[in-house]
Each structure stands twice: as C-alpha cells, then as structure tokens.
Design a protein that fits this description.
7 strands, 48% helix, rod-shaped, alpha+beta
Length: 279
C-alpha cells in the first residue's frame, strides 16, 4: 500500500528586496554561495541571500552575518515568478476537514481529528501513530465516508489493528454482512455496542470472522424466535381469556333467560275473579 504523493519542496532561493522611493521590488535569485559576512546601512534596506548553507541578514540600523569566512562569487539566475511556482505544485489531496464525525466523547469533529483521537488509544508509539494516520488516509483515499463510519462505530477495532486498515475493513464487512445488517433495531440497541467493541476484535482473519458472525446471528435468531413465541403465547392467552369471558357471559345470559322462563311458569294469568258477597 503506497503512501499519498508528497508535495515537492520549493528550492532554496535568495530574495533581494530593495525599496526605492515609493516603489518596492522583489527578485528571486539563485547562486552558489555568499561571503561569510555582510553589513548594510540604515535606510530601511535589507538583503537576504542563501547558498551553500551561508546567509547574510541586515536590518535598518546595523548588521549581522552568518558564514564560514570563505568568499564565493554570486551568480545571478533567471527570475522565477511566484505564480509559476505555485502552478507547478501538484493538487492537494482531498481534504478530510469537510467530513464530520462524532467522537467517542460525543463531540462533532473533522475526520482528520477523529482519526487522531482514535489512534491515541492504540498501543503503538507516538511516532507510529503519525505513520498509522497517513496509512489509513491513504488506504481510504477513495472512500473517506467509509473511514468515517468505521471510526464512529468501530473505534476499538481501529485501536486493536492501528497499522492494518485492510484488516479493519474486511472485519467490518464480514460482521455487517453476516450479522449486524440482519439484526433488528431493538437487537442493535441491545447487542450492537458489544459486538462492535469486543466480538469484532477477537480475530484478524476475515474468514474466521465470517464464521463467528454467523454463529452470533444464529444465537440472536434463536433468542428472537423465543421472544416471538412468548409474545404469541401472551397474545394467545389474552385471546383465550377474552373468548372464555365471552362464553361465560353468554352462558350467564342463557341461564338468566332459562331462570326467567321458569319463574314465569309460576305466574298466574287472567283477570281476577271477584266473589259475590253474600247478602
């Protein structure tokens, strides 16, 4: 895996800046050296020359010099416009500051800063953290959004394998395809964090990770079915209770109706027969 192309350095040059009246001129010159000393008078003029490690600097009221005491001739070269130097530089790599992620502390940070924060928890030297950062950015150069997702959801994995971005990607792909993407929202809320922090970090072999992810999901699927059966049993029990209550209610109504009929059997009908009074 190759590192990102580096920007070429601008050659050392001698800059002679002279102010005359109201005009200011700036020339870029190159040469093979300068004399080991230099001095200028105090009219606001200053000269800076470089070559073979020697330099001469002077301010408006005095002078200072750095050199090896040897005299060398100054050779003037062609003037190089600053605009041409800038245009000759390669384009910068895609900026990581435009992609924002949420850190473990809950702060919104740039992807660049987020990667640095995650790598601070890795068990590698401080110098190698810089190497690891460059390596991750180079590996995910064409998919920085994927890197941002991994840093947000699987920071422990990056800390476990800080120098192996391909391993991190392969393990995430294995666990998402065979387990995490198949889980429900409730299952992710309950088990997702432990999987992302511990289960996924147990091996660096993607093939082994696939088998572990499958076993994990089968265990979750068993729990899911048991929970579904409990829910169905609860619903069925509720339905049965409702049906029993309805049946009992109907029976009571029938009994009440029968009792009412029996009660009516004892009821006498007809008009009252008046007895004649005896005189």
């Amino acid at each position: 895996m190759s590192l990102p192309p580096q920007k070429p350095s601008i050659p050392l040059a001698a800059v002679n800046k002279t102010r005359t009246n109201d005009e200011e001129h700036c020339n870029v010159k190159s040469g093979n050296g300068v004399n080991g000393h230099g001095a200028h008078n105090g009219n606001g003029h200053s000269t800076m020359l470089s070559g073979n490690g020697h330099s001469t600097m002077a301010n408006g009221n005095g002078h200072s010099s750095i050199g090896n005491g040897k005299n060398h001739a100054i050779t003037d070269g062609p003037v190089v416009p600053v605009e041409d130097v800038l245009l000759a530089m390669p384009e910068a790599l895609p900026s990581t500051r435009n992609i924002m992620i949420t850190s473990e502390e809950g702060r919104l940070v740039s992807l660049d800063e987020g990667l640095e924060l995650v790598l601070e928890g890795a068990e590698i030297s401080k110098e190698n953290r810089r190497v690891a950062k460059t390596n991750f950015l180079d590996a995910f150069e064409d998919d920085m959004e994927e890197l941002g997702k991994i840093l947000e959801k699987y920071s422990k994995l990056v800390q476990k394998f800080p120098l192996q971005p391909q391993v991190c990607y392969d393990l995430v792909a294995a666990w998402e395809e065979h387990c995490l993407d198949l889980m429900t929202t409730d299952e992710l809320a309950r088990y997702g964090r432990s999987i992302a922090s511990y289960d996924i970090c147990r091996t660096d072999n993607p093939e082994v990770a696939i088998q572990e992810a499958k076993r994990k999901f089968q265990g979750l699927l068993k729990l899911r079915r048991e929970q579904e059966w409990k829910e169905k049993s609860k619903q069925l029990k509720g339905d049965m209770s409702a049906e029993l209550a309805r049946a009992v209610g109907e029976r009571k109504e029938r009994l009440s109706a029968d009792v009412a009929k029996d009660e009516l059997k004892a009821m006498s009908k007809g008009k009252i027969q008046r007895k004649k009074k005896q005189s």
